[in-house]
Amino acid sequence: MTGLSNTLLVMLGTSLLGAVAALVGSFAVLRRRALVGDLLSHAALPGLCLAFLLLNFRPLAGRLVDSQLRGAGTWQFIGMLAGAFITGLLGVALVTLICRYTRTKEDAAIGIVLSTFFGVGVVLSSVIQNLPTASSKAGLQTYIYGQAAGMTREDVGFITLVAAACLVLVTLLYKEFKVFSFDPGFAQAQGWPTLSLDLTMMGALALVTVVGLPTVGVVLMAAMLIIPGAAARFWSERLDHMLVIAALIGAGAGVGGTLISAGTLEEVLGFDPLAFGHSTRHLPTGPVIVLCGTALFLISMLFAPRRGVVARLWRIVSVRRLIARENLLRSLYELSEPQLPDKPFVTMEQLTADRAWNASEVRKLLRWGANAGFVERSSAGARLTAAGHDRAEEVVRTHRLWELFLILGADIAPDHVDRDADSIEHFLTPELVSRLEAELAAEGRLPAPPGAVPGSPHEMPAANAAPRGEEASRG
Length: 475
What we know:
The protein is 73% helix and 2% strand. The protein contains 21 helices and two strands. The protein has a two-stranded antiparallel ribbon. Strand 1 (375-378) and strand 2 (381-384) form a beta hairpin. It is elongated, with a radius of gyration of 33 Å.
């Protein structure tokens, strides 16, 4: 029972941390400052080390630290987080100064400050490991690598307080953060305190970062800030929806990582589907949380309904299929157009030559046409049915209207217009086609009765296809 209650406690803390990190980190992702989270987490390391030295070593602390505070768990926790917060903000301030007063770009400045602070932190960490008088070197490792399983009620309460404060901050400044994230130039032009907004946003990011250090550690905290927001971008284009989705992803990663590392998944299912023959019990919770977040990111990237890779590939395949099918109908119509209203059979050789298709592609398209009732097939070839002829007329009419528009309105030569029209005609709406026909007919540029298929512009007399400027000059 004690193990279960501890798991629930850790799960509550990690889910809250994941949600608030995702909420604040989403704004960094939108502002293309995702690396700032990485900067904060790495810049916090020297602060952790300095705070550890100050709180645990009397010769170094001197009279600055009272003996009652040294070794006390609560003060140790608050002191080390304060040290991490100070150096994290110092790192952000240095990046801002470097970008403002030098020619260094932001990404380069972040890389310089991040690596420098982390190098200082590693050196200080090595110094601490080599000092024999340390009372608890393991405490420092908790903040570097994370130890979510050791989370206490006080830790959860502190995370809850920070989460509530960040939620209130985002709610009160939602409009300002929204405009500042998408268009900082507009916010500045409106006279908004953009510098204060930037510092407030970075302060919240730094606060969440240092609070998450005991859970996932210095190295992995950046992932908690970046991954949920990046994953949520695949699901929605609205900021409010994105923030909610990011918070759910962050909380879900916290819950999933806790359950997997605690062995709860194995207990419920009777086996561990992620173990590959080995138990995942007692795996470090922080890294497992990050891996769960990564899994949710991959799912979002692949299967999001509008922006996911699968959906985008499906749209590409669907568009290519639509273009090929409409091109088949247009080819059958144009190849048999000289003999209309008769519908002669068109041979495979004529189709392959007209569209540079291979025989396999033609056979596949003809099978679709036959199944759809648009094409009649025989040993002599294929021809349009009555339904196919009506559909082909619509396709050819749209194509030729767009060709006329490009010739007359865009000054494209008739012998080059077919390729340009072919790339866009499949996406014209019926309303736009009606407008094109009305405009061409009103100017006397449509050499056909309304609703009929215009003649091919390639075969029209030069006077009929002349651009407006040329006709005006002749008049």
